[in-house]
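Handoff note, outgoing to incoming analyst
You'll be picking up this chain. Sequence as last confirmed:
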Amino acid sequence: MDYRIKAPAAAVDCLVQLPPSKSIAIRALLLDALCDGECREECCHGCDAAADIKVMSSALASNDDRIDVGGTGAAMRMLTAYFATRLGRTVVLDGDHRMRERPLGELVRVLRLMGASIDYLGGEGYPPLRITGRQLLGGAQCIDGSVSSQYISALLMIAPLAGGIKLTIEGNIVSRPYLDMTMAMMQRRGIDAHWHHDSIVVVPAGNYKAQPLAVEPDWSAASYWLAMQALVPGSTIRLEGLPRDSIQGDRAIVEMMAPLGVGAAWNDEGLCLTSTGCELPRFYGRDMSANPDLVPTLAVTLSLLNVPFRLTGVANLAIKESDRLQVLQEQLQRLGYVIDCDGTTLAYNGERIDVPQNISLDAHGDHRMAMALSLAATRHPGITIVGGEVVAKSYPQWWNALQECAGWRVESF
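Most recent structure output, in case you need it:
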């Protein structure tokens, strides 16, 4: 389904209810299943509208011998580790066409060293997988930290059942805040997962204690509203329920948007965004390796503000739901912004080219691209997002929120 959107010229004044964090919800579901084999959906009350959480919940509750996770990368990685621990059960774990292009080799390699029985049914290193559950033995293991933090989170969460693990993470650790999130959630369930120096995680043997968890609002979803505040000065946007002491690393978006004129203050409702009126920077540079999910939001916002930028630490965006580096480069060029990318860095020097008024932008099946690119309506009239229904993956109410909260006009066809 395509969405034609038009943003009003007026500033926005609204209260926004964000979706719950799918990263927290997916981990909570898996940790509950590891407690006693039961998947308690009530731990994610209010989350089940998000497609990724539905996928994870259904997979954990299923007794089928073939499970298809579609495009849910977190489910693929974490369920690979989970089913490797289910003694005597054999499962074929598969996904959509894009999932079969997303690597799993490093995770499978370490699981096999722990005693896992995992076979590739297609290309070496990629889904689909046939997994037969065994008793695993953690011990001392090493893993490449530069591909996906979800590999590491998956190993950490099953480690207590495998006698514990001392996991050395080699290379650059991408998305480290997600590892801190995983460890914090394990600790709340009685497992003392902790860092030993900067590259070793120690997890003891033990059993999880079941504990209900209130799932925070999603900071990744909040990022699009902080971007709107930057793009529509004079707005007042209130984001309901966002905690100041969140365990989500993407809370860093507040710091990232401050140089772009976004003021942020917590009150009883949550986070209130206002405009500070500061002068835009002449150049914006940042290492994004800790927060890769924020790259689309930040790159689109900076381009629309005509602020030259250089974002480093972005290599693993090529293996997300889409090749986000390529998609950002192509779609921003359709908007007239000439973006350079060498595989590890995304950069814009301010160069513009003329483009027509009515522009179609392709989300390429990627929820974060659909939402980030929709912000272009603040600068370019007549924007259409092709395949915009993909926002259901993490923020099903996005298009409704643009209409009801921001006053945008959104037509689906």
